[in-house]
What we know:
Blueprint: E1 5-10, H1 14-25, E2 30-33, E3 49-50, H2 60-84, E4 95-99, H3 102-119, E5 126-129, H4 130-136, E6 146-150, E7 154-155, H5 158-171, E8 175-177, E9 184-187, E10 192-196, E11 199-208, H6 214-219, E12 228-239, E13 251-253, E14 258-261, H7 276-289, E15 298-308, E16 315-318, E17 325-329, H8 337-350
Parallel strand pairs: 1-2, 1-11, 2-8, 11-17
Antiparallel strand pairs: 3-7, 4-6, 5-6, 9-10, 10-11, 12-14, 12-15, 13-14, 16-17
Helix pairs in contact: 1-5, 1-8, 2-5
Amino acid sequence: MQADFDTLVVGGGVVGLSVAYGLVRAGDTVCVLDGQDDALRASRGNFGLIWVQGKGLGNPDYAHWTMQAAQRWGAFAADLEALTGVDVELRQPGGLTVGVDDDALTASSRKLDALGTALGIAYPYERLDLQALRERIPEIGPAVAGAIYCPLDGHVSPLRTLRALTQGFRALGGRHESGVQVQQIECLDSAFRVQAGDRRYHARRVVLAAGLSNQALALQVGLDIPVKPIRGQLLVSERVAPFLNYPCHDVRQTGEGVVQIGGSKEDVGVDDGTTIEVMARIAAHAVRCFPLLSDVNMVRTWGALRVMSPDGYPIYQESARCPGAFAVTCHSGITLAPVHAGPLADWIRTGVRPMHIESFKADRFHVQTH
């Protein structure tokens, strides 16, 4: 059977499009099968952080992988803008995790010191007291103790990034089909056959990057990908004069001037709704950090579902039963986009695994205990 494409990517969010962009840029023929409008879409609810600080506690590979991604973001954004004209609003001035008391800051400092020890480096961060924090953000509230600053952090517009990836992928000759619901994946002698309604596709490789749908799809190619939804709720304000030059873990100001407030994590199943209780809690925290927000109107809210593995780390796995079938899933699609388009796409094309992803195999969840 002759394949129509080198690779089919199932999933048209930031994760799937980043991989597809990397593959088509390297010369593959690639088709992205994007879901229907009512599909759960983590990318469209993303907060937009490029976040490094604290990532990798308990798994130094994740710290290395995340740092590498953050360091690649500048070239990645420039490449996308040169190809598409889309400015993804990349800003990497460093990021802040605001602490409401000294105990919280001390605990965070100890964790980052321990992570630095595990990595064999002096972990790049500063502990700022309230005065030092006020020098960076004069509008900080008096009821906080300070912040942890990491120079590697930043933020982008996730929607602009998604648009740039889509346009860039198409500009390089990639085929993008939307409204496609994949039902069946067959592993044949020399190709995969993918059935979606009355459409049928053939490709030498299949990359499953369909978020929460990966769990069911992966079983068809012999993979067990344990992921679950974790809800996050967000508030969005009217436009405000620029005051927040640093992205914070729970609050950021976009290039358009609106303020996004988030930070909730809820295990509520497949429910992407919003609740007054959580909105009130995250709003109160934001106002405590930045009192000027008490006079700002909130104009929009939404809930979105993170795609979480049991340990919170990515899953990158090729099927042993169906070589050429890959699963790619994570909850940090924005932060990791440059490495998904770079070394991860190279691994899928060549079979050479990049450094620091060995511990992200799905096998780690299937240890025999007898």
